[in-house]
Amino acid sequence: MTDAALSAPPKSSGAAPAAPAQEVDWGKLFLGFGAMVIGQFMAILDIQIVAASLPQIQAGVGASADQVSWIQTAYLIPEVVMIPLSGYLSRLWGTQRVYLMSCLGFIIMSVLTGLSSSIDMMILTRALQGFIGGAMIPTVFAVAFTAFPPERRITASVIMGLIVTLAPTVGPTLGGHLTEWLSWRWLFFINVPTGMLVLFGVARWGQFDKGDPSLAKGFDWFGLAVMATFLMSMQFVLEEGSKNSWFEDSGILGLTVLAVVSGVVFIWRSLSYRNPIVELRAFANRNFSIGVAMTAVSGASLFGGTFLLPQFLGRVRHYSASEVGTTMVVSGLSMFATGPLAGRLVRQMDPRIPMFIGFLLAGWGMYMAHGVTKDWGFWEFAGVQACRGVGVMIAMIATQQVTMSTLPPHMIKNASGLVNLARNTGGAVGLALLATTITNQTALYYMGLSDQMSQGDARIAGMMQSLAARMTQLGVADPEGATRKAIGGMLEQQATVLAFGDSFTLLAYGCFVAAAVALLAKPAKNAPPPPSDAH
Question: How many CB atoms lie within 10 A of CB 245?
Fold first, then answer.
C-alpha cells in the first residue's frame, strides 16, 4: 500500500522525530510550545494588523495610494518562500535554532519597519520581516505533531486553530486601536516586548529535537531558486491580478507564464533530486493530499470571510475601523468558544465527520448572506459570523488531524510547511476570486439597473421628479444634474450590494463542495500508527 511504503524513514531521519517516548516533561513542553504559539500569533497577526491603518501609514511615509498597498503585499510574497523552506532548515539545524533565528530577525525588522521614513524602506523591511518571520508559523505545527504524544495532539491542534483563526480576525481591530491611541509605528514596535518574551521561552524550554548537519551536503540551490521564483510570481499574480485586470496587463501575463514554467521545473526537481528542498512524496498519501486541498479551502473561507465583511461595511455602510472591529468580534468569539468543542468532536469520532459538518456549517453561514441588503449591520451579520466561525474552527481542527494522521514522523516537518503554504495560497486564491467577482458583478449589475432606468420605468421617473423638486427647493444650481448623480450613486450602491451577495454565495458553494470531498479521505482511526507511536 502506498501509505505503508512511505513509512520507511530516510537515512537522515534518526534525529528528526522528537519522540515523546514514555516520559514527557509536561511543564517544559507546554512552556516551550506556548512561547512558540505566541510567536506564531505575532507572525500571523502582522499580515492584517496594518489593514485598518493604511491611510495613516500612507501619510506618515509620504506614499501614493498604489504604493501603500505594497505594505501588505511585500510581507506576503517572501513569506510564502520561507514557509516550505522552514521544514528543511528545521531538519538541518533543529527546530529551536531555526525558530530563535526567525524570531530575532522578525523583531529587528519590526523595529526597522516602525522607524521607516520612506515607503521604499518600509517595503524592504516588511519583505524581510515576512521572509524571516515566516519560519515561526509552520515550525509550531510540526512540534504539535512530533513532540506531543498521540492522545494530546488534538489539544495542540485546537490551540493552533485558535491562533490561525483569531489572528487575522483581530488584526485590523487591534491595529486600528493602536494607531488611534499611540501611532501607526506601534503596529510594529508592539512586536518587541512580545518577541523578547518568545525568545526567552523558546531558548529556555524549546529544545524539542536536534538537527542533522549532514543535510547541508548537496544543498539544492537550484531547487531553492526555482521554488522562490514559482511561489513569489504566483503570489504576486494572486495579490495584484484583480487590481490590474488580470491578463490584460502584460506584466501579470508574463508572471503567470513564469509561475507555470518554474512550478513545473520545481516539481520535477523536487521529485528527482536526492536531497530536495521540499519533499513532495507526502502527496502520495491520500489523506495528506485531500487534507491539503481542504486546508486551502478552509484558508479561503477564513481569509475570504475576513475580507468580505470589512469591505462591505466600509464601502456600503461606511463604518469606521473601530465599528468594523466591533461588528466582527462575533466571528472571533464564536471561534474561540468552539475550539474545545471541536477538539472533543475530533477526538471522539472519525475526523471526516466533523470535517464534513464544519465545512457544511461554514458554507451555510456564508449562504445566509446571499440576500444581503444595504441596511445589514451588526445584528444581521451576527448569525452569519457565528455560523461561519463555528464551522471554520471545526473544519480546521478536523482537517489538521486528517492531514497528518497517517503520515510517518520523518515527513511531518516538511509536511507542516506544505500545509501552511496551502492555507496561505488558498486564502490568496480566495481573495483574488472574491475581489474579481465583486468588481465584475458590480459592473454587470450597474449596467442592468441602468438599462431598466432607460426603458422608462414609471417608478424611476417619479423618483427622479421628486428628487429634482427637492433639489430645486434646496437651491441647487443644477437640480437635474444633481438628481442624475444621486440616482447614479443609488444604483452603484445597489449594484455593489448585489455583487457582495454573489461573493458570499460563491464562498458558500466552495465550502459545500469541500464538505463533499472531505468524505473521500480514509478513516483516520483505521490508519496504521506511525512507528514512533507504537510502544
Answer: 11
